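README: folding subset

This subset contains proteins for which both the sequence and a predicted structure token string are available. Records are stored as plain text. Below is the entry for Protein ARV (305 residues), shown exactly as it appears on disk.
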Amino acid sequence: MPICITCSTPVKNLYTVYSKADDRTLGKGVRLTQCPNCKHFADKYVEHDFVVLFIDLVLIKPQVYRHLLFNRLGRSDDKFDPSILRLGVLLVLFDVYITWARIERSSAAAGGTDGGFRLAEMPILTQYLFFLTMNVLATIAQHGTIRMLVRHLLAHTQKQEGSNDTKSPVSASIADLTLGPPAGTVNYASPSAISTALLVSSCTKLFPILLVIWPTEAKEGDSFGFAFRATNYVGWAVLLNNIEALLVLLNCGYIVATGLAVSGVLARWVVEGWVLSLLGLGRETGPVGDLLAACKLIRGWLTQI
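--- output ---
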């Protein structure tokens, strides 16, 4: 059932077609439904194109996540929308390109390591399959970890609801007024909905493609350049988007949503670090290298203060 993207109130429909002679793609012949609760349009994004949706995704607006997760991509059969499957394949392939380029640049800047030499001596197809396998395993680990944690939280929520049912109505109402909703509770979401939220909120990963269209040269004394650092910055932006998507989908609060998103990222880093360690590349070019780079950046800021 569709919901209002402003207050999450369920509505019967998002719009009404009152004239089939006009062009609906231009917004003609369509009347948007007004939410009975907040009096705003139930879903203004019905009339917006994908460019506006992508911009609002980057700006981390919860309304666009409600539109995508509940009103457009949500399904009652707990299956993936075909467009989400295509998006998932695109993100994995783009992760392969980003990881491959990052490791090559890091190995070259470090003067070449034994692992880097072994990787460079492999055929191009073998290198591609290596990074493809690593990113597929990392994505499965990330989604699987978050799904498992949500399942445990749902079991905890159902247990708390069962304990509340055993209380008297008076004591239960007093507890609700004094304590509010129980901590660590989440709304039900199917595994496919959780993966859909993670994939949709990871669209920011596609931003570095602009650096391929408009490349930037590294400054003198900067062995990595802006393009290399931007790929790492985008990773942290994706984490923020994942937190917002899980918050909207599960209605679990920022603490739980942050814990779920960080747990998924840690699982992804563990898998990437393990696979890269097979070639001796698990320190400077893997997730540990991201942490070391972040520590160096923070240390540089502190020394300038």
